[in-house]
Amino acid sequence: MAQLGWIAGIAIMIAFACISIYTYNLIADCYRYPHPVTGKRNYTYMQAVGAYLGGTMHVLCGLVLYVKLAGVTVGYTITTSTSLVAIKKAICFHYKGHEADCKFSNNPYMMAFGIVQIFLSLIPNFHKLTWLSTIAAITSFGYAFIGSGLSLAIVIQGKGEPTSISGIKIGPGLSAEDKMWNVFSAMGNIALASSFATVVYDIMDTLKSHPPENKQMKKANLLGITAMTILFLLCGGLGYAAFGDHTPGNILTGFGFYEPFWLVALGNVCIVIHIVGAYQLMAQPLFRVIEMGANIVWPHSTFINKEYSTKLGSVTFRFNLFRLIWRTVFVIVATIIAMAMPFFNEFLALLGAIGFWPLIVFFPIQMHIAQSHITRVSLKWCVLQLLSFVCFLVSVAAAVGSIHGIAKNINKYKIFQYKQ
Asked: Which segments constitute the Amino acid transporter transmembrane domain (predicted)?
């Protein structure tokens, strides 16, 4: 919001929300093949792409989808460590004063988070634990309202910083080129915040057939994206109104406010709790596809397919050697990458850029064209392709901007020695 300003910031958030509602409704209509109500179910997004667009698109969709899921686990590791350090810093500033040297390494917290995720990754059917969604929703609203409320308090007290309709002004501390890169990166952040296409079919799998799943999902899309956008506008708008050009990338970890320190710490606790479960919800589909692929390629391998049982008191645990090793290695690698490149905003922007156009715009539009038998070069076909092309340009710009930001930070950064 600080990079884009009031007009572009609000307009882009609303535009992304409208595009998401439209394309997610297209995704909902493609849940069944070939007819949205009477056709055969597609249990995954990839399966739907394969049914409507063929094998090549099926593979491309899987490649983008699982690269993004792997990237999100890295982003979650960075976010969690940032929030854990922020909790420690809030306590430090409270007792030692706001000018105290309260800098701490993120690495121990990333390693601790990685160890927790290794254990959680080995729980069978972790993704089916229904209480995860409830906790995620509560903690999401928790940190959003805490951040917005603290920002609102600053504005009400008359301590808000000056803002602009065009965002941070070009001047001695910001060149026109850097402003452009920052704007591109900001769009990537907003794009990431709008993306949940990867779990739409997981939600629809839980719905009954009457009324039709696509009709139920369209109502959920409208309600969910509207609520989500209102929260984004509150956090972005109030945060910008409070801090102006000095708005931190994360208002709960950037220390625009120090007191009440316990509320700042509580907001970060909500973020950590939310992400502990969210990490698994994103990682489980990746775990499953690799394990299913290994089972297909080596169906008679004892290492890959044999299940072992062990008892700990009255509880029986079942484990598989391949699953144990592969999941552990994945979490370790994700943690190491996060430790090597802990740049919060730029990394999230890159993830948003990678997933926005192909997953949220291109594949849904192409599936809709195939399902509805829209004539090539007709007016509707041209409008849909124009929408796809514009979103492609936004994704490319956001990706370039975030990569530029990461490269710029890496030049100033000693690997594995980042302190926040």
From this structure: 1-405
With respect to residue 64, please indicate whether it lies within any of the assigned structural domains: yes
pTM of the model: 0.85
Query: Shortest CA distance to 36 belongs to which of 48, 54, 23, 22?
Result: 48
The full length of the chain comes to 420
Buried-state track 330-357, b at ≥16 Cβ within 10 A, e below 16: bbeebbbbbbebbbbbbbbbbbbbbbbb
From 348, 286, 279, select the one nearest 135 (Cα to Cα).
279
Q: Is residue 303 part of a domain?
A: no
Round to whole Å and give the CA distance between 135 and 11.
31
In a domain, 420, yes or no: no
* Structure confidence at residue 151 (pLDDT): 92
Residues 229-247 have pLDDT tens digits of 998 899 999 999 999 988 8
The model's pLDDT over 184-224, given as tens digits with 9 standing for 90+, comes to 888 888 877 777 766 788 788 888 888 899 999 999 999 98
Number of domains in the chain: 1
Q: What is the CA radius of gyration of the chain?
A: 22
Half-sphere exposure of 290 (CA within 13 A, CB side): 17
Residue 243, CA distances (Å) to 151, 153, 289, 315, 344 in order: 8, 12, 44, 52, 19
Report residue 7 as tokens: 């007009």
What pLDDT shows up at residue 416?
Answer: 60
**Rounded distance between C-alpha atoms, residue 123 and residue 132, angstroms:** 14
Q: Backbone phi, then psi, for 124, in 5-degree steps?
A: -65, 140
CATH of the domain at 124: 1.20.1740
Q: Which domain holds residue 9?
A: 5-288+318-411
Instruction: Round to whole Å and give the CA distance between 367 and 103.
Output: 50
Is residue 225 in a domain? yes
What type of residue sits at position 231? L
C-beta separation of 420 from 382 below 8 A: no
pLDDT at 412 over 70: no
Question: Which is nearest to 273 in space by CA: 188, 148, 146, 420?
Answer: 146
Judged against a pLDDT cut of 60, whether residue 127 lies above it is answered with no
